[in-house]
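protien #1 (seq + structre)
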Amino acid sequence: MSAIIRKIVTVVEETRLEMGQTVTPPTRRAAAIAVIENPFAGRYVEDLSPLIAIGEELGELLSKKAVAALGIDGAKAQSYGKAAAVGENGELEHAAAILHPKMGAPVRQVLGKGAALIPSSKKRSGPGTTLDIPLGHKDAAFVRSHFDGMEVMINDAPRANEIMVAVAVTDSGRPLPRVGGLTVAEVKGEDGLR
């Protein structure tokens, strides 16, 4: 791997009770987060292709770790999302280079599909920042029950010359969804919308 990884953290969240109501089966989401060295921290570089390659590598690594944390086959994942935070010596374009051009293909390969765009967020911040990973159904963007997010943080990341990169997957939508929209049973998964 071309990324210099300081640490990887995997988080699983399982909701069993919401507003006094039992959630059956429990909703589960997992995020795998890598803290990597930013090779371009503190300087402007025109060609960001090394970060694009890192994004492709991390897409596979992190999605495999998130799926394994849920203990499911990748094809059973229902929604996904990605996010990155650059340290103070980085620029937002560094996060964009990791998240956008090539990260999606390996994530989709691990999950066995993924017709919908992978929701993403990026920001610049310091150690202990909260990373909000937006989530959406992997095959149909109009499934409202899967409009969600996962909040993660690592107490010592990102440092000034680092990038914190996360991929999140779920085996369900929000607990107790009831705002209408396309249901999972109605998903065709052909155009990424329905």
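ok now protien #2
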Amino acid sequence: MTASVQQRKLGGLDVLEVPGTPDGPVVVMLHGFGANWRDLLPLHREIAAPAGTTWLFPNAPLPVQLGPFATGRAWFPIDTAALERAMATGTHRDRSKTTPVGLSAAREQVFAMLAEFGRPLGDVVLGGFSQGAMVCTEVALTSPLSVAGLVLLSGTLLHEDVWRQAATARAGLPFVQSHGRQDPLLGVAEARRLHGVLTDAGLVGELHEFNGQHEIPRPILQQVSAFLQSTVPSKPAV
């Protein structure tokens, strides 16, 4: 951990903060299932965000036992047995009709974190990987105020009816989305359906597919850099 990274408690969540300037943009990145707040921390060095950007990397609230000597964190529980069965048969689970138990609690905790941090949501870009992308989609679509942008890395479509209706209030919201065509965990077909739900409602963004699996390759980091530079440009010095 670099000296510039600070550990905080915001809204009941443990958060790693890379401070920027008081009037600069804020980028929040939510890690995936089984990872932790340090998993995406290197992104603040690998993504070319606008000058003065503050980065927040929250730790998900739920502990996950990964093995005899390994633990991780989760935003909400998943059916690991069903996931393993799907992977064993080379199929993907369709979650579009499902509201995961714990999703609303995760949403409220992210709301509380943002509220305690105290910056206007119009300065905030919400991003996440895998399960983190699902949570930040839920937060962005159901928040009473709009965020500045949305970064969805290897996410998927959840409770389609809820998101489709909520997304109509977010017409014009910019987003960037990525997904690997060979992703064994979350199928690219479901990512395409998510993109359709968002764009049908008037959100503005592209789905960048790549030949890879459940990952964030360098070309996608470059796409996110370009998105941030165009969405939340640096404010001129006064």
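The beta strands are 6-10, 13-18, 26-30, 54-58, 62-67, 70-74, 124-129, 149-153, 174-180, 204-210.
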